[in-house]
Specification:
about 250 residues, globular, five-stranded mixed sheet, 2 helices, mainly beta
Length: about 250
């Protein structure tokens, strides 16, 4: 199974590398501490703080984190039988999803108390919000659009790059009208049009894991995008990375 997964990741990387979709690089503007034990699944920036979800059975949590120091100011552990995945803000709440439990939850942002749950079919990977709707990934080339009140599915976005379906879509972030998505086991972020599903550009973050000193574990990959819409700051990190970066994007190149 692991061998097949590795082959699938290699094929996906080859597809991305040969794509005609424009690519842009990055520059590091600032570096911040990050918990090296945090298996980062979801990340967003709100009210001057980072909000982060972590995965793994028995170690899943939702945290409020101080950006400058990486200090965990508040933390809510999820049940041991739950593998936490992405989180997204909605009003004064945090909406979170789980990997294989086919269940999501709604937390009070202030106390991190769980005030409700909802169900969905299949897996949960990443989730984000445009302020009106929720967008959820499940590892397939489709992103589900959910009603934030009922959590009913409104439609699906079929994501393609150069006309080919893009699988392994993971952590999501809404950035200036586009969906930014980590592609699992790659060093790239896809910039997705939320209406057509077309990948408008790749953000190539090659070398960032080495700069972060991410370690040799195969799962210590890029995962975690947060955007400060007020100050137009973009933050990225990875699973068990000891660093979180504020980056500036280079112009798109074809």
């Amino acid at each position: 199974m692991l061998k097949l997964a590795a082959l699938g990741a290699a094929a996906l990387a080859a597809q991305i590398a040969s794509a005609a979709v424009p690519v842009q690089g990055y520059a590091i503007k600032a570096t911040y501490p990050h918990d090296p034990q945090a298996f980062t699944q979801g990340l967003f920036f709100k009210d001057g703080f980072l909000w982060e979800s972590t995965g793994q059975y028995g170690a899943s949590s939702v945290r409020k984190v101080e950006l400058a120091t990486g200090k965990v100011l508040q933390k809510r552990d999820l049940p041991e039988k739950v593998f936490g995945e992405g989180i997204a803000p909605h009003g004064d709440s945090i909406v979170g999803i789980t990997w294989m439990n086919q269940a999501g939850y709604v937390m009070e942002q202030g106390s991190l108390a769980i005030k409700g749950t909802f169900n969905y079919l299949g897996e949960g990977w990443g989730i984000t919000s445009d302020g009106e709707r929720l967008y959820m990934s499940d590892g397939t080339p489709e992103i589900r659009v959910l009603d934030p009140k009922t959590f009913g599915e409104q439609r699906r976005i079929k994501v393609t790059a150069d006309g080919q379906p893009l699988a392994q879509i993971n952590e999501l972030e809404w950035v200036d009208g586009q969906i930014y998505a980590n592609v699992w086991q790659t060093d790239r972020i896809a910039r997705i049009d939320p209406f057509s599903g077309h990948v408008l550009g790749w953000i190539d973050l090659s070398g960032l894991a080495a700069t972060a000193r991410a370690g040799s574990d195969a799962d210590n990959v890029l995962n975690g995008i947060a955007y400060d819409a007020k100050s137009h700051r973009l933050f990225v990190t990875g699973k068990r990375w000891p660093k979180l970066f504020e980056i500036v994007l280079r112009p798109l190149k074809k």
